[in-house]
Design the sequence.
């Protein structure tokens, strides 16, 4: 069991009377890249929000890295080693690239000064360069504020942020939804780099080509439940669409949705 | 250096390449405004060759009209100290309307702890407290003043951070509370006759030195410390700051406390300089302080601005005020002209930003 990084059992979330997520059993092995697909409102984002501690689940258990966890917020999850790129980018427009990468976990000097302790700009710049190098992200000048960057560059900064710090699991919620062709490719290259490095990833995406291109396994959500768990080699686009729309349900999930 | 040679994915990172700093625009504006007044002085028929900037009548050893320069900077330095705090509040995405009345209230309270027992051999006619409060060491009124400022700031900050009411409303309420407190403290009577130690705080050019010293200190704090970075981060994108693990609520309380302590310190300097405290002190100061910050390029939407900008904004403010008097503009029209100038400063800044956004 030690090669499983994340496992959820019977994960359930109700918003009042709305059953957004029901009995989700999910497993992710170390080094594995899994895509989560499904229609709008199928429960994909809800599922991620329970894992990352943004919301508190109604019932069920989450086992991360061999331990049962109860994150009280996204910061808890991050400290445990889950890095998330949210759909709404969590970037501060008026700050430059290193500032954004290190937002909330700045390198500091003279720590006895408390809130007025000094920032280690040099150290942060160096680590930023290394992080960008590792992910092969292209930013013309890291001293530029995020405000003046294209959507792709911003997305890359958000992703580079997760790659700069040692993490055990990366989650990306539709990282290329608003990007052009070239920018999408750049983001996909980062994902390939993560795969080579053996970092596990959960990718939420609507893009069939991208999913078939990048991940090992596809999990399909429909109406708050998992309806299929497909190895990439054993499926194709049409098959997946059938599961998403409800034309098909995998035998082991019969009775769901 | 490794920093410069390592590219990011083939592209080089140029340490020297920086964008045109906004502060330079304000500095240029300052020079242009001085030049305009100088030109008006030379051309207006009733001015008799008086110079705005230069020593045209050989009254001083230097080529500049030192008396005017001194008055300009002395005039703005006390409100400038408030503006240093207001700058931080605005950068964090808030606003502080309570600083003017806070000056009044703090001055009244502080002066009560700084009174001397005997005035020309007679008992102090304005005594607020009994004998125990006479001739206290100068540190006591300073500590009382800063503590009062910290308290008001903590209330402002807590209201804004924890009840989530808009900063405008919270500090507007505090505006009235502080003005009321200033009036209630002695039922409207002024408090006067401070100790010698207390009068030294704001004597002569001291307000200017305090202003410059505090400006340097807070420039450093905003630029190079965690406090400064988090202030910009919260003003820029509060949700991002929260999601990144910054304790936004605690930080807001800190920012408002720092701002109110600066306003309280301005009250100490002002009451020391004037040798008296009156409940009406600091009228319009909150608006002037905001104006200085805004002229200095501090964005009211948060996230952008700097102490250098605000100091330059204060200088622009002082030069305009002094210039209006110099060209003998009727005092009744000065406020109107000042208002127009503040509005145009913001409009110009907005246009410049939009142009920059289109270019990139």
Sequence:
């Amino acid at each position: 069991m030690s090669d499983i990084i994340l496992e959820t059992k019977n994960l359930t979330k109700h918003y009042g009377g709305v059953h957004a997520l029901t009995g989700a059993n999910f497993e992710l092995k170390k080094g594995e890249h899994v895509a989560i697909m499904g229609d709008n409102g199928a429960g994909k984002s809800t599922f991620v929000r329970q894992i990352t501690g943004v919301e508190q689940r109604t019932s069920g258990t989450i086992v991360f890295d061999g331990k049962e966890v109860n994150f009280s917020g996204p910061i808890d999850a991050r400290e445990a080693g889950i890095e998330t790129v949210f759909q709404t980018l969590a970037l501060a427009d008026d700050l430059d690239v290193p500032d954004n990468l290190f937002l909330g976990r700045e390198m500091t000097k003279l720590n006895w000064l408390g809130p007025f302790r000094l920032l280690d700009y040099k150290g942060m710049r160096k680590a930023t360069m290394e992080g960008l190098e590792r992910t092969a992200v292209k930013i013309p000048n890291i001293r530029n504020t995020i405000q003046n960057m294209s959507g792709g560059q911003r997305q890359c900064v958000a992703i580079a942020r997760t790659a700069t710090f040692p993490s055990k699991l990366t989650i990306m919620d539709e990282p290329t939804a608003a990007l052009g062709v070239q920018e999408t490719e750049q983001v996909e290259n980062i994902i390939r780099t993560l795969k080579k490095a053996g970092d596990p990833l959960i990718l939420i995406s609507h893009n069939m080509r991208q999913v078939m291109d990048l991940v090992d396994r596809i999990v399909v959500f429909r109406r708050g439940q998992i309806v299929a768990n497909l190895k990439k080699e054993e499926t194709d686009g049409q098959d997946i669409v059938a599961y998403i729309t409800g034309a098909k349900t995998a035998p082991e999930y019969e009775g769901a949705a | 250096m490794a920093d410069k040679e390592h590219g990011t994915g083939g592209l080089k990172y140029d340490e020297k390449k920086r964008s045109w700093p906004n502060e330079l625009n304000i500095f240029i504006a300052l020079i242009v405004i001085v030049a305009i007044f100088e030109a008006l002085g030379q051309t207006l028929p009733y001015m008799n060759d008086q110079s705005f900037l230069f020593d045209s009548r050989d009254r001083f050893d230097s080529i500049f009209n030192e008396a005017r320069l001194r008055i300009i900077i002395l005039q703005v330095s006390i409100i400038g100290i408030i503006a240093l705090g207001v700058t931080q509040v605005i950068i964090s995405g808030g606003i502080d309307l309570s600083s003017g009345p806070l000056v009044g209230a703090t001055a009244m309270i502080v002066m009560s702890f700084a009174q001397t027992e005997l005035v020309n051999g007679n008992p102090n006619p304005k005594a607020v407290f009994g004998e125990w409060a006479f001739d206290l060491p100068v540190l006591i009124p300073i500590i009382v003043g800063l503590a009062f400022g910290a308290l008001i700031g903590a209330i402002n900050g807590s209201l804004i951070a924890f009840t989530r009411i808009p900063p405008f409303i919270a500090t507007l309420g505090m505006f009235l509370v502080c003005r009321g407190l200033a009036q209630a403290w002695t039922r409207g009577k002024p408090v006067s006759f401070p100790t010698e130690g207390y009068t030294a705080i704001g004597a002569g050019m001291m307000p200017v030195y305090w202003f410059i010293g505090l400006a340097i200190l807070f420039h450093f704090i905003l630029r190079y410390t965690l406090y400064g970075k988090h202030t910009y981060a919260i003003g820029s994108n509060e949700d991002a700051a929260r999601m990144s693990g910054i304790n936004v609520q605690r930080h807001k309380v800190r920012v408002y406390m720092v701002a109110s302590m600066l306003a309280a310190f301005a009250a100490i300097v002002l009451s020391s300089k004037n040798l008296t405290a009156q409940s009406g002190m600091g009228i319009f100061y909150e608006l002037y302080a905001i104006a200085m910050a805004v002229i200095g390029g501090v964005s009211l939407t948060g996230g952008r601005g700097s102490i250098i900008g605000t100091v330059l904004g204060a200088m622009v403010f002082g030069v305009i005020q002094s210039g209006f008097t110099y060209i003998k503009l009727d005092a009744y029209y000065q406020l109107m002209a000042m208002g127009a100038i503040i509005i145009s400063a913001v409009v110009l800044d907005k246009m410049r930003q939009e142009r920059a956004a289109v270019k990139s």
The longest strand of chain A covers residues 4-15. The mean pLDDT of chain A is 85. The domain at 4-90+167-253 of chain A is CATH 3.40.50.300 (Rossmann fold). The radius of gyration of chain A is 19 Å.
